[in-house]
Amino acid sequence: MPGPTSSGALLYARSRALPHALAAAGVTAVLAAGAARLPGVRAEPDRVLFVVVLWALGAASVIGASLHAECAELDGTAARRWWRWRLAHLLGLTGSAACAAAVALPTPALAVVLALACTGVTAAAAALLGARVCWLPAVVVAGVAGVASGGDAGALRAWPAGPGGWSVALALFAAGGALHVVRGARPEGPRGG
């Protein structure tokens, strides 16, 4: 017979549709890895970079969509706060995405840095704006990374090795993750109303 911890984890996973999120994250990684290995893409480093940026946005969007609770009342009425589940959820999906990037993508360091930055921004946006639109600010982060590199693919590719690459990404992830873990996703209004 399952104990209270296992039934709490199961309830949390069901309320966030985590099996669907894991499946979507896996499909995103497989598609990105396949796209990066296409002959026309592999021969052009800028195209590979474009695939990696799209993958990071896709991974952050999948993680952000999974932060939405179908039954938001669960968080407010639970006997125990769900911050531990939120933390495990965010770390688990982000860690899975980072591992997939490290194994499958040709620029693993850049993929992980972008995924951390985009996921942190997405988690903060879920807490402030709601999980349904939380992917939008991650698009801004990817755009800022592109503008900061001056449109130079080599500069963007070198971002993780630069002085602020990892620290900026980790700071964004930590701040956004902490905000989401403490507050949870902002409740959405009624559908159609």
Automatic annotation (TrEMBL):
Transmembrane regions: 48-67, 87-105, 138-159, 165-182
Q: Which domain of life is it from?
A: Bacteria
Key words of the record: Membrane, Transmembrane, Transmembrane helix
Q: What is this protein called?
A: Uncharacterized protein
